[in-house]
Amino acid sequence: DDNDFTNSWLQNRIQTKLYGKHRIKHELKLKGIADDMIDEHLDAHSSDDNEYARAFKLAQGKVGSFEGSDAQRSQRRLSQFLMRRGYSSAIAYRVCKDIFDES
Predict the structure, then answer these.
(1) Taking the CB of residue 46, how many other CB atoms lie within 10 A of it?
(2) CA 77, CA 89: separation in Å to the nearest integer?
(3) CA-wise closest residue to 55 among 11, 9, 3, 14
(4) pLDDT tens across 72-88, in order?
């Protein structure tokens, strides 16, 4: 049923792919799942803290590929990457700030 499918799809995308809420919601809508069911499952599985932690983990793996680029360009590319993966601009900005402040 749709409930079980939504739950398993969401867990796979969160744990394996490290996708953000926006990307997951978009993919589930394309599969024909109702908005209220998507929102219910997203609220149960993902908080802003979890979302930030996943984005940070994803960014740590990606940031090495930007070596040799200037910092501003690297930050822009990393934030665009995170937003394509479904993270909000606020989370992408915060992750980039934290990643590049570490350096």
Answers:
(1) 18
(2) 13
(3) 14
(4) 999 999 999 999 999 99
* Residue 103 DSSP label: -
Q: In this predicted structure, what is the pLDDT of residue 102?
A: 74
Q: What's the chain's average pLDDT?
A: 93
Beta-carbon contacts of residue 12 (< 8 Å; ≥ 6 apart): none
- How does DSSP assign 18-68, residue by residue? ---HHHHHHHHHHTT--HHHHHHHHHHH--HHHHHHHHHHHHHHHGGGGTT
Angle between helices 48-62 and 89-102 (to 10 degrees): 50
Q: How far apart are CA 91 and CA 97, in angstroms?
A: 10
pTM of the model: 0.88
Q: What are the sequence ranges of the domains in the chain?
A: 2-46, 49-102
Amino acid at 20: G
